[in-house]
Amino acid sequence: MQGQPLANWPLDQLCVHRVWAHHVLAQPEKIFLTELSTGRQWTYQSFDAWTNQIANALQTCRVKHGSHVGIWMDNSAEHWAIFIAIAKLGAVAVPINTAARGQLLQYYLSHADIETLIIDEEKIRWLKPIANDLPKLQSLLKIGNQIITDIDFNSIDVVNFLSITDTSSTQLIVENVACHDLLILSYTSGTTGPSKASMLSQAAALSYATGGLQAHGFLASDVVYVCLPLFHNNALLTGSLTALMTGSSIALATRFSVSGFWREIRQSGATVTNLLGAMSSLLWATPAQADDASNTLRLISMSPIVSFVNEFEKRFDVCVVSNYGLSDFATVLSLTKDAPIEKRKSIGKPRSYYQAQVVDDNDMECANGVVGELVLRSLEPWRAATSYYKMPEETTRANRNQWFHTGDRAYADSDGYYWFVDRKKDCIRRRGENISAFEVEQIILSHTCIAQVAVFPVSMAEGDEEVGAAIVWRENQPSTELELIQFCAQQMAYYMVPRFVKVMDELPVTINQKIEKYKIKQRFEADTNSLWDTTQHLQIKRDTIALLP
Question: Where are the alpha helices (DSSP H) in 90-172?
């Protein structure tokens, strides 16, 4: 395998431990990871040894091949190292959104059958309300030295993970870990039900990286700047695993910051990064500086491509490419740097190992230029998510007639490029986060004063979406919008909390009593000034809603 381009590795060799062995042999002293918040650095060899220590420590905590391990951590070197250690053992990583709270958090931990949970200790307080509702959780491994005395964890072992890691041997024997072994349960928003956990094998996870290598020509000399959260497939697979497959370096940031973005790019010497959702617009909206083009980036993967992409490239002297994919399946299409100028707003062409097609409601292929549903499939086994964990009906519904149905509407042109139109799904896309309208509704309905609720996206002028909620109070049990928002902040991720609320006497319904969301959405967007706006009434930034009491 040594000397063979990793983008072309045989399918049966696509395992994380094999990739590590390749790089440790080929370039042991090369810098692999720099944690920008602390300046800590690891070479390929030292990071390999550290992840072996962590893997051995996990084994002492009863983690083995096939065990489900939750990771509920902010971005850090420890987070990434723990994921790699889990992969080496052939265990299953379950990244948990750090903003999850209350019912949503309890659902993730229970549904995924998590036996071991690794957690930043400052998050432990959020486990207190649900500690008695996690019957399958056996071990809680906390990162930090705080002594926990105010939470009753019953039979759950609470361990200071760093203390047992420090005493572990650096030798690790990897046995029977194969490309088809389940590596990740990746939660994606439910559209007609609860969030679904996509099942990604070792090969599927690494195919995010090999596909990117083939499409965009990443280099071993690249430095990949990762500022998106590691619980997202974009940061975990499209960013970090791509760097590993390429044999390049990772510059790991704590989070995305508009004010700190270009400073960290220059500080780290980053050459490649990913921008999702409104990130591109936020960077573009900053006042132009004389040194905007004086940065080290050569390539940005932008999704979606913004209307001002040509001006963005010129201002920051960078080449923009794009990728289309879903956590439910894989990253399947790429818009490459050699695409013709007239194709810049498309979502590109299929990558190697994948096919795409646009179909009508009967799954018959549409003619070029005709809008239908975008469907996908893999040409090889194990290169895409196999199913939804413990959701056979959802799996069958999405995978029918030999194609995975994305729920996105698109069309193909005569040159083989695909063009995104909109979503069929009942889903809200806010600042790169996919939000399940159903999930938000179910949590709001658990409030004792709510009789009915409809949640939907409210389109904003800048191209993003906000969460809107139309509610009907229970008879003789009215409350206030503020109290409802405070309730939501304690029960769901901050980005799911509705920005706009409208109290109504009744919700419009069809003859079959299905709520006509499109009518409510039209009313919302026609007169947003009449809505109760969280940002105006609380006079705070939207993302600080998580701090409400």
Answer: 102-111, 161-166
Beta bridge partners of 225: 251, 273
State the Cα angle at 520 between 470 and 507, rounded to 5°.
60
Burial profile 468-486: b = 16 or more Cβ within 10 angstroms, e = fewer: bbbbebeeeeebebeebbb
Q: Which amino acid is at 476?
A: N
Question: Quick check: helix, strand or coil at residue 116?
Answer: strand
Please tell me the distance from the alpha carbon of residue 85 to that of residue 70, in angstroms, as a whole number. Answer: 13
What confidence score (pLDDT) does residue 4 get? Answer: 44
Domains of the chain: 19-29+44-201 (3.40.50.12780), 256-387+395-423 (3.40.50.12780), 428-547 (3.30.300.30)
Residue 548, pLDDT score: 44
- So what's the pLDDT on residue 411? 95
Cα torsion through 319, 322, 327, 332, rounded to 10: -120
Q: Is the pLDDT of residue 67 over 70?
A: yes
- Give the model's pLDDT for residue 547: 42
Q: Which of 164, 181, 193 is nearest to 82 (CA)?
A: 164
| Per-residue pLDDT reduced to its tens digit, 233-278 | 999 999 999 999 999 999 999 999 989 999 999 999 999 999 987 7
* Separation in Å, CA 130 to CA 124, 152, 156, 231: 11, 10, 13, 21
- The stretches of 155-241 forming alpha helices (DSSP H) are 161-166, 202-216, 233
Query: CA 110, CA 138: separation in Å to the nearest integer?
Result: 12
User: Which is nearest to 323 in space by CA: 307, 342, 337, 312?
Assistant: 337
Among 210-214, 416-420, 492-496, 538-542, whose mean pLDDT is lowest? 538-542
DSSP 479-538: --HHHHHHHHHHHS-GGGS-SEEEE-S---B-TT--B-HHHHHHHHHH-GGGSEEHHHHT
